[in-house]
Amino acid sequence: FAIMQGGRALVSRFPLLYKNLSSLQRGFGVTMLVAGIAIFTGWDRQVQTFLLQTFPSYGAGLTAIENRPEVQDALDARSGSASGVAFASSSAPGSATNQEGTLSLDLTGADPLSRTSGSWFNSPPLTLDSLRGSVVMVDFWTYSCINCQRTLPWINAWYARYAKDGLVVVGVHTPEFAFEREAKNLRRAMDELGVAHPVVQDNDFGIWNAFSNRYWPSHYIFDRDGDLVSSHFGEGAYEETENTIRRLLGVSPDAERATPPSAIAKSPERNPETYLGSARSERLASADPGKNIEWKLPLRLGRYEWALEGSWEQDAEYVEAGPSGVLDLDFRAREVFVVASLPDGSTGTLKVTVEGKASFWSAANPIIKEIVVDKDSLYTLFSAEKSTKGILRIHASPGVRLHAFTFS
Question: Which of 33, 220, 250, 388 is deepest in the core (most CB within 10 A)?
């Protein structure tokens, strides 16, 4: 009512507007109709994607406020990181960082490793105080995170090589998704990933918050006196980290080094990590259909966008397929992974088709792959020898839950 009265008052002050009032009304009506069509078909997202690609600084002003440190702190508090629900990135933004020297970390009060009621694996409960005299690496990870899975072979190699020299690795498993809280799932994942060092469940984020940690993976290295001397967030810097371990242990420069895993090739361009649950979903090109209405695909997908078709239920952490669930994803990557789960230990399938511009592809002969989802874990949807772009389509059987896409 107030807007209506204000509009009338404004028009009455300008005779030219009042004289052409009917034309203005028709113009606004057409504008609203076009806007509705754009939202329904996904054109609005395509325009936004075009602007961001053509003018990279376009979005800077949109995010300038939310990127301020004080705003980030407030968002962290409201998002629940202090209460056990973390909305952190799976890897540190930008290039990985490595800091060395005596670092400042407030670890007053109860020993950080004791700030959890979770189970310990491969070891009785440990504390930083009880580990004085050893060089200690505290590694934050979660088993369905592809960044963590790429880092683990190096950590396993360091533990195998330097444990006899006094290195203790403590893996702090802080879950990103609800199914990662289950001890049996973590034990299975540790066996599959070859994790032999001590691991503690941090389901309540007590240790995470004691370190003020924000990323998976992250590690912190303490010297024999219990002082924190090095930290690293994200993948990479493996040689530097091993050099720090060797120096703190006093290993001879001529002594054998850990056997590194095979190098992992990465695409020069790849999609950002993409969450599918409503709490963190981005680049979803399908309009929300509301209750009891099937999702529809847009006419086309913009760069990195994904869309749903058929019956899906979107939860905060995942999308769950109904009887006719289809998902399309525009990707640029060498490999595409998805975190998938199923309720109540059931099994399901993902039928994957990929169409792209490579010479061996055609609309009549796409790549087809069928994946059996029989555990809550990370699955490989697509893998190629070099960077590829295309449209990946998933036909999911009813009940399959898809949490996030990751890429390499």
Answer: 220
